[in-house]
């Protein structure tokens, strides 16, 4: 009988691998931490005593950390209670250059912006983990960022239509000047783009690169593709605008990609 | 709180705004002051008032300083004015309380520079928002040979340290970063992997 009472009043804990997206101080001794988890989507919780306690949370609440998160929900609030957080992997190389910090921060911010609270999405979690791993081991490039953005948009349900005109269905290889429409989430042909205000002109080369990258299997396939730097930059900037449109605000880390890039 | 007479309630409300003070503690403090001699309470009120009037930011290192009423751009802090400090060393910290912490260790005899923040891509804080330009001006002047970067071992602290190293090296300045190690009284068994790894990296001959 006692056991039954206990099981109905004790909060149920969940344990899941997670990546720390960001954390900030709360009051004198606590921290609020936002995670992308493998099995519960985005989880935001409070880590009591995290600013003081050496043992419980040390080094496991810093952005970019891959951790094993234990948390439970509390009645009347969406803020979870973080019971424990054990470091699985700290991406050590990510903090060895400004370029890597800027890129990893950007991956965090766009993934945060496009993912939902408590919305299980294992593929999205794996994508972010693979992305951090790629920067850790291979460094950064516009090609990588563009690939990451395209797959993130696909996995989070915002995949832009790039193979044909969103309005009339004309194939992307067709004649004329193409444009990307933020509102339509895809491309418009020369005949259809005058009907929309928020469009970005898009070169055929950039469009071709994005169509190919959208079909690429994984990050590892990237070394097989080569595109001129200007084409990749154009693609990345169009996707950045689209992501900002979906998130509904300017991305704070975006200017740092340029400012801290060595190439 | 509505049960208290108005002046008492007002004080309790103000005390509650302080960090770590709940309504119970606030009420206890307020009742304590009520019992105290008027001069003592006046002294407390006066020192709180003077805090904001007389404290300012050092015009050289941006640490905490007493305000010099004769100058509009503020005074220099005690450390900057002290002729016994080693002027060829500047220790860079994020905030004034970090400077106080290093001072407490009594290990360091050089000067300071307080950045008033850290570079943080996730918060959109770039180098131009910090006192980095002023640091470069100071270092560009005569006599500085070493800059010791004592930002926190966080992503933002590392980003700031990397930026400073890049900006200072071309000036021919030695740039060092404080070591990250085990806390005194620590135990290898209970030390997290990142700290332990860093402690090995930062090992030195004995
Ligand atoms: Zn069309
Ligand atoms: Zn000073």
Structure description:
The complex is a heterodimer of chains A (263) and B (206). Chain A is α+β, with helices and mostly antiparallel strands and 263 residues long. Chain A folds into two domains: 11-90, OB fold (Dihydrolipoamide Acetyltransferase, E2P); 105-259, de novo design (two linked rop proteins) (Up-down Bundle), CATH 1.20.1440.120. Helices cover 37% and strands 24% of the residues of chain A. Chain A is elongated, with a radius of gyration of 21 Å. In chain A, 40% of the residues are buried. By secondary structure, chain B is an alpha/beta fold. In chain B, the strands form two sheets. In chain B, strands 4-3-5-6 form a four-stranded parallel sheet. A two-stranded antiparallel ribbon of chain B has the order 1-2. In chain B, strand 1 and strand 2 form a beta hairpin. The mean pLDDT of chain B is 89. The structure holds zinc ion (ZN) (2 copies). One zinc ion is lined by residues 165, 167-168, 170, 188-189, 191-192 of chain A.
Taken in chain order, the helices and strands of chain B follow as HHHEEHEHEHEHEH
Classify the helix fraction of chain B into a percent range: 40-55%
How many domains in all of chain B? Answer: 2
What integer is the average pLDDT of chain B? 89
């Amino acid at each position: 009988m006692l056991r039954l009472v206990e099981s109905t009043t004790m909060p149920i804990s969940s344990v899941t691998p997670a990546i720390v997206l960001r954390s900030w101080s709360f009051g004198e001794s606590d921290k609020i931490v936002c995670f992308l988890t493998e099995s519960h989507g985005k989880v935001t919780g409070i880590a009591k005593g995290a600013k003081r306690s050496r043992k419980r949370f040390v080094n496991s609440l810093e952005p970019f950390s891959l951790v094993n998160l234990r948390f439970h929900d509390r009645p009347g609030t969406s803020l979870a209670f973080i019971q424990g957080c054990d470091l699985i992997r700290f991406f050590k190389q990510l903090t060895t250059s400004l370029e890597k910090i800027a890129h990893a921060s950007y991956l965090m911010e766009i993934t945060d912006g496009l993912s939902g609270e408590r919305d299980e999405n294992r593929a999205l979690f794996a994508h972010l983990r693979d992305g951090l791993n790629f920067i850790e081991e291979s460094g950064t490039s516009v090609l990588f960022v563009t690939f990451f953005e395209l797959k993130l948009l696909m996995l989070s349900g915002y995949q832009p239509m790039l193979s044909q005109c969103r309005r009339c269905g004309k194939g992307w290889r067709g004649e004329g000047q193409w444009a990307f429409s933020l509102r339509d989430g895809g491309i418009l042909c020369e005949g259809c783009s005058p009907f929309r205000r928020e469009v970005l002109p898009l070169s055929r080369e950039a469009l071709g690169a994005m169509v190919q990258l959208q079909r690429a299997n994984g990050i590892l396939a990237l070394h097989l593709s080569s595109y001129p730097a200007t084409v990749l930059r154009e693609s990345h900037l169009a996707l950045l605008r689209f992501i900002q449109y979906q998130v509904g605000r300017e991305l704070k880390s975006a200017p740092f990609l340029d400012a801290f890039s060595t190439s | 709180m509505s049960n208290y007479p108005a002046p008492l309630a007002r004080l309790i409300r103000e005390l509650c705004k302080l960090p770590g003070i709940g309504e119970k503690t606030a009420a206890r403090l307020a009742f304590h002051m009520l019992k105290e001699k008027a001069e003592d309470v006046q002294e407390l009120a006066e020192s709180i008032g003077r805090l904001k009037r007389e404290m300012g930011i050092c015009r050289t290192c941006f640490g905490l300083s007493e305000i010099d009423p004769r100058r509009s751009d503020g005074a220099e802090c005690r450390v900057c004015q002290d002729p016994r400090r080693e002027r060829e060393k500047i220790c860079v910290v994020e905030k004034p309380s970090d400077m106080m912490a290093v001072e407490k260790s009594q290990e360091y005899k050089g000067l300071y520079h307080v950045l008033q923040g850290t570079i943080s891509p996730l918060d959109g804080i770039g180098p131009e928002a910090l006192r980095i330009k002023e640091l470069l001006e100071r270092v560009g002047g005569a006599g500085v040979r070493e800059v010791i970067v004592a930002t926190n071992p966080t992503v933002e602290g590392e980003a700031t340290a990397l930026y400073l190293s890049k900006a200072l090296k071309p000036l021919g300045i030695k740039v060092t970063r404080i070591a990250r190690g085990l806390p005194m009284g620590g135990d290898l068994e209970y030390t997290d992997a990142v700290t332990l790894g860093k402690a090995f990296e930062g090992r030195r001959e004995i």
